[in-house]
Model the fold of this input.
Amino acid sequence: MTVFNKAGSYRLGDREVRRMGYGAMQLAGPGVFGPPKDRDQAIAVLREAVASGVDHIDTSDYYGPHVVNQIIREALAPYPDNLALVTKLGARRGDDASWLPWSEPADLAAGLRDNLRNLGIDSIHAANLRVMGSVHAPAEGSIARQFDALAGLQRQGLVHHLGLSNVTRSQVEEAQSIAAVACVQNHYNLVHRDDDPLIDWLADQGIAYVPFFPLGGFTPLQSDELAQIAAELGATPMQVALAWLLQRSPNILLIPGTSSVAHLRENLAAAEIELSADIVERLNMIGERAPA
Done:
């Protein structure tokens, strides 16, 4: 069993979770569509994650679609009492694997019920409103109608906490006028630093920030300086990038994804890496030099 206590924990709604979690997106087939090549391996990854102490799993019923949640259910149900399952609503998949908006109030309700049915649960710990648009950057615009619909589902007891994904600070503030925001999930990593002010603002309020694409997403982070630092530390570049995120702010919760048990163990071990102030400064410089 892996122990990764150095990173500590942080509040996600009414529950403390370990800061190193797991993102289930890569358990689907290519393009996050269809079944995985090796279902048994996907099940093994999930069971290894929970056995290693992971208590926060990020998913969505549009992964597959449906496939990933069904695999989570097969692998982990009945779920441990301390496991926080978090989903995203606001999109659906086309027959051609396209990503389509699905954010009318009735759509959000149907999407949440799809998640509950495929996960085999009556309610879920948290649901994020995923605002569609650019994959890499949010766009301003009111989200009140959609977030109010999620608040209604919360009042029905179908979801305990609400979050947001791919949003700006003003959209978070708009949502807060409707219901409490437990977490924000945006694009952020060592070289993509647009959300630096937002992270600090959320930390002041005790709100979790969950970066997606923490390792660069479909284009993994590449930097000669990152590789050099990793070699000095006897770690991999991706482990160093995850360790930097954990030291960036205490409200950051990580959900790196993988379909490999070996890679999962590598990711979890990153939580044990302590970076010196000098190393952090060198890593910060990589972000400052990265092209916009």
